[in-house]
Design a protein that fits this description.
Structural class of chain B: alpha+beta
Shape of chain A: globular
Largest interface: A-B, 34 and 27 residues
Number of strands of chain A: 18
Helix content of chain A: 40-55%
Helix content of chain B: 10-25%
Radius of gyration of chain B: 16 Å
Number of helices of chain B: 5
Strand order of the largest sheet of chain A: 10-14-15-13-12-11
CATH superfamily of the largest domain in chain A: HPT domain
Radius of gyration of chain A: 33 Å
Number of helices of chain A: 24
Strand order of the largest sheet of chain B: 8-1-2-11-10-9
CATH architecture of the largest domain in chain A: Up-down Bundle
CATH class of chain B: Mainly Beta
Largest sheet of chain B: 6 strands, mixed
Order of helices and strands of chain B: HHEEEEEHEEEEEEHH
Oligomer: heterodimer
Distance between the termini of chain B: 37 Å
Largest sheet of chain A: 6 strands, mixed
Strand content of chain B: 35-45%
CATH class of the largest domain in chain A: Mainly Alpha
CATH superfamily of chain B: CheA-289, Domain 4
Chain lengths: 760, 175
């Protein structure tokens, strides 16, 4: 297909790709759910996905996608109408169709065409058709015909199963509806200006068509009728036939207003009925002079022939028209029937139409280029630093500036609010990411022959968008591992006295300024001996490893090429996965905790720092160096007396704070600096808490408290034990932010270094 | 004098953005009595020495980090990198900020001299001494008349194998 693609078209295509991706992402889990309980609501949602995809793809002339979506739609329709029973194969097939669509979208995004997908589409459509044929067990003679017949059926079976509409659905209907109507309104308003260009018209038609579809699925019959009538008029106008009125846009706009009112009605919890529906339908009908094709169809001439005839009569606007041309006779039939139906007493609600001004959307969002957002957030970060520089300017030291201080405080408050706001902009809930995993677990459990319950929690936890992207792969690998290696096969589980269905928990939560994403299973747990054996055989450790802690041993699974699996399955076992987990977590300065109880399962925590976080920091000084401690971790600070200090035989210093003894860590040893004094009694001890662990940090002095914008220590430097990042001070200098969790590790590392290389 | 040079260098950096005009151009600097050069395309800017915040657990040639207008970038002492004896920083000491595939690093050198044009034909392959640690990072020997400039391979200088071991596994992602 060689077509000239202009910018507008590209924009439309891009929008289509994003929208479709969103939809697939949303619906994929529901498809899997479908296998478990076929709730009509879920069914309709999925049906709607393929239906919209078919519509949009058809409009954009992505024929291969249209074909597959159409086939999937047929299958779903048959299932929905109870003509065939849903079998697990269907779920798999629909999942495969989603995969195909994703791939096709990728292809569309890069080349603006889905021609590459022709083979895949053939296979996919064929499979779907076969499934339909197979399930029906009849009608094998008809090859292509059933597809068309069934579309007609969709139309005829407009009496959809009554759906229980919940608020969420209602909300999404309203949001989408408002958007569609607004677009349509713009289209209508522009209509008068240049009627030669088919593009806005097609767009307008599509908007109304989608809106009609939505109304249908939600069972808003009156709105559907009105929208349908508008569609009919537009269809006629689009195909270039004259309308009975010189100024059709006015009538259409009036109808549009009615629809907008009805949508508002729904958002306020009412039933979205259209007042004086009949009149408005008649009004629109007036625009339509009878058409020869219509009559022919009614007379019994085959729809396709008419379409073909109509087709040749017109300028080729592309395959959209074929698609819609095919549908048109059936739509017309339907419209006629409906028109008659309207004449029987319909629900009438007299309600004065609200003014145009009242038809404003309730909830709005806009898509923003991520780059722009990043720039904004960076700027705000800079501003916090600049504000610090200003307020804590060394030139102001010692001056009593009452007004300045007041103004400064006000500004600090504003800047802080701005900062908080900016942080929330980039954050999105992990729900989307988690739901994607439902599919994964479904697939793997089927492949590995295991029964699994995936429990999700904390889906509302928000994480930075890029972070979510970075942890997607790690989560995939972790879940694979849990399912493939962690969970035992059903018979083994029963033998071990466990429920044959394993449980894998995926959860997210906030914990001490980090987000923790946890993958937990109740499988056999990590096998210390096996890991150790492997490590020794690979020469990764010296000796028999009996002196290593469980934690050290478990961490070995993150080494590249490390796999204890005896066999490489197609799911996992190559030992690449865990390495990916580690690499990706390092990228976002995250950390990994592994814990495991043999026979009871294992648990892996991904600890992800909030990017561009702002923390309350306490600045401490050692010699001429300053460092920042997160205020959250500080329990208390005091100047120790000599009798509070105890020295253990192996050289550790302990401080007694009331009834507890805490190990003392000297900051000057970590930073390798010369302190003012090495005497504990000359400095300050700060009691810090990290999870359950408490210890004292010895510093020279506490300098003060300040808002701290966390900056990463360049990727070039990587992760440094004991340091979580750095910040820029008021004087433009850089100060390290200490990581309470790894301070102890850092000092232990230093001590062993000193033992092994005393000359350093 | 150094200030004049720096200004001259900056005009070159500022005006010559595209690859073609940067071809065969090297920023040259002094280090322990020798002249070195690095390809100009890597160089972002040259700043005077400033306060460096030390970072624990770093190899000795990573001096720490500096604040470059709100960006935190690591600083490498090129003398220390080549195990040349330390020398106190003075007002001629410069930090050359380079960018390699998105990673910015500051290089501390004794003194920046000029931007020199060294066509390919005047560049000899590196000598095969294999003795000192430094020679591994040499891209070639550039000749300008009688003068010889040691042209450094910035890529290797920053992301050498040895470097990777020292820095952990982070660096290999940038290769």
């Amino acid at each position: 297909m060689t077509m000239n693609i202009d910018d507008d078209q590209i924009e439309i295509i891009q929008e289509f790709v994003t929208e479709s991706r969103d939809m697939i992402e949303q619906l994929e889990p529901q498809i899997i759910e479908l296998g478990q309980d076929s709730d009509p609501e879920t069914m309709n949602a999925i049906f709607r996905l393929f239906h919209s995809m078919k519509g949009s793809a058809g409009f954009l002339e992505f024929d291969h996608m249209t074909r597959v979506a159409h086939a999937a739609e047929n299958l779903l329709d048959l299932i929905r109408n109870g003509e065939i029973d849903l079998v697990p194969d269907h779920v798999n097939l629909l999942c495969a169709a989603c995969d195909f669509a994703k791939e096709a979208l990728d292809s569309v995004e890069s080349s603006y065409s889905d021609d590459d997908m022709v083979n895949a589409a053939d296979i996919m459509a064929e499979q779907l058709h076969q499934a339909i044929e197979h399930a029906k067990g009849e009608d094998t003679a008809e090859e292509e015909a059933p597809a068309i017949d069934q579309t007609v059926e969709v139309g005829n079976n407009a009496e959809l199963p009554q759906i229980e509409i919940n608020d969420e659905m209602r909300q999404s209907f309203v949001t989408e509806g408002v958007e569609l109507l607004q677009n349509a309104e713009q289209g209508l308003l522009a209509w008068g200006e240049k009627s030669d260009d088919p593009e806005p018209m097609a767009d307008l038609f599509r908007n109304i068509h989608s809106f009609k579809g939505n109304c249908g699925f939600f069972g808003f019959a009156e709105m559907e009728k009105l929208a349908h009538q508008m569609e009919t008029v537009l269809d006629r106008a689009k195909s270039g036939s004259p309308l009975a009125s010189d100024n059709p846009a006015d009538s259409l706009l009036a109808a549009l207003d009615l629809l907008q009112n009805a949508v508002n009605d729904i958002s306020e919890g009412r039933d979205g009925s259209v007042p004086d529906l009949e009149e408005h339908l008649a009004e629109l009908q007036k625009l339509l002079p009878p058409m020869i094709g219509e009559i022919l169809v009614e007379e019994g001439v085959e729809a396709e022939h008419v379409t073909a005839a109509v087709e040749t009569q017109k300028k080729p606007v592309g395959e959209i028209l074929i698609d819609q041309g095919k549908a048109s006779p059936e739509q017309v039939n339907k419209a006629l029937r409906k028109q008659q139906a309207v004449k029987s007493p319909g629900k009438k609600q007299t309600k004065s139409p609200a003014s145009r001004a009242a038809t404003v959307a309730k909830k709005q969002d806009i898509r923003v280029d991520l780059g722009k957002l990043d720039n904004l957030i960076n700027l705000i970060g800079e501003m916090v630093i600049a504000e610090n520089m200003l307020i804590n300017n060394p030139d102001l030291k010692g001056l009593e500036l009452e007004n300045f201080t007041k103004a400064g405080q006000h500004m600090s408050k504003l800047v802080r609010e701005l900062q908080e706001m900016a942080m929330t902009i980039r954050m999105i809930p992990v729900a989307g990411l988690f739901r994607r995993m439902i599919r994964l677990v479904h697939d793997i459990s089927a492949k590995a022959g295991k029964k699994v319950d995936l429990v999700l929690s904390g889906e509302e936890t928000e994480i930075d968008k890029t972070v979510i992207e970075t942890i997607t792969d790690p989560l995939v690998h972790l879940l694979r591992n849990s399912l493939d290696h962690g969970l035992e096969p059903p018979d083994e589980r029963i033998a071990a006295g466990k429920d044959e269905k394993g449980t894998v928990t995926l959860s997210a939560r906030h914990e001490e300024g980090e987000v923790w994403v946890t993958v937990k299973d109740d499988g056999r747990g990590l096998n210390r001996e096996k890991i150790l054996e492997k490590a020794i055989s690979k020469g990764l450790i010296e000796g028999d490893g009996s002196d290593l802690s469980d934690k050290e041993i478990y961490n070995m699974i993150f080494m590249p090429g490390f796999s204890t699996a005896a066999q490489i399955t197609d799911i996992s076992g190559r030992g690449v996965g865990m390495d990916v987990v580690k690499k990706n977590l390092e990228k976002i300065k995250g950390k990994i905790n592994v814990s495991s109880t043999p026979g009871q399962g294992s648990r892996i925590d991904l600890r992800i720092p909030l990017t561009l976080a702002i923390i309350d920091g306490m600045m401490v000084r050692v010699g001429d160096t300053t460092a920042i401690l997160p205020t959250l971790s500080i329990l208390e600070a005091f100047r120790p007396n000599a009798d509070q200090i105890t020295q253990t035989p192996d050289g550790d210093e302990l401080a007694r704070v009331r009834e507890n003894f805490f190990q003392i860590i000297r900051l000057h040893e970590i930073l390798e600096k010369e302190p003012d004094s090495r005497e504990l009694a000359d400095g300050i001890l700060i009691v810090l808490e990290h999870q359950e662990d408490r210890f004292c940090l010895f510093v020279d002095e506490i300098v003060g408290q300040q808002q701290t914008v966390i900056k990463g220590l360049s990727e070039f430097i990587g992760n440094v034990a004991g340091v979580s990042g750095c910040t820029i001070l008021g004087d433009g200098g850089v100060s390290l932010i200490l990581d309470i969790g790894s301070l102890r590790e850092s000092i232990e590392g230093k001590l062993t270094e000193q033992e092994s290389a005393p000359e350093v | 004098m150094s200030e004049n040079n720096t200004a001259a260098v900056e005009t070159v950096l500022g005006t010559e953005e595209n690859e073609d005009t940067q071809k065969d151009k090297y920023l040259t600097f002094h280090l322990a009595g020798e002249d070195y050069g690095i390809e100009i395309r890597y160089v972002i800017e040259i700043i005077g020495i400033q306060k460096i915040t030390e970072v624990p657990d770093m190899p000795p040639f990573i001096r720490g980090v500096i604040n470059l207008r709100g960006k935190v970038i690591p600083v490498m002492d090129v003398r220390a990198r080549f195990s040349i004896e330390d020398r106190a920083y003075d007002d001629r000491t410069c930090i050359i900020v380079v960018n390699i595939e998105g990673t910015e690093v500051g290089l501390v050198v004794d003194e920046v001299s000029e931007v020199a044009d060294i066509p390919e034909k005047n560049v000899e392959p590196p000598p095969r001494t294999g003795k000192s640690t430094g020679s591994r990072y040499i891209q070639g020997m550039g000749k300008i008349g009688e003068e010889v400039k040691i042209l450094l391979d910035v890529q290797k200088l920053l992301f050498d194998e040895e470097m990777q071991q020292l820095m952990g596994t982070i660096a290999d992602e940038q290769e």
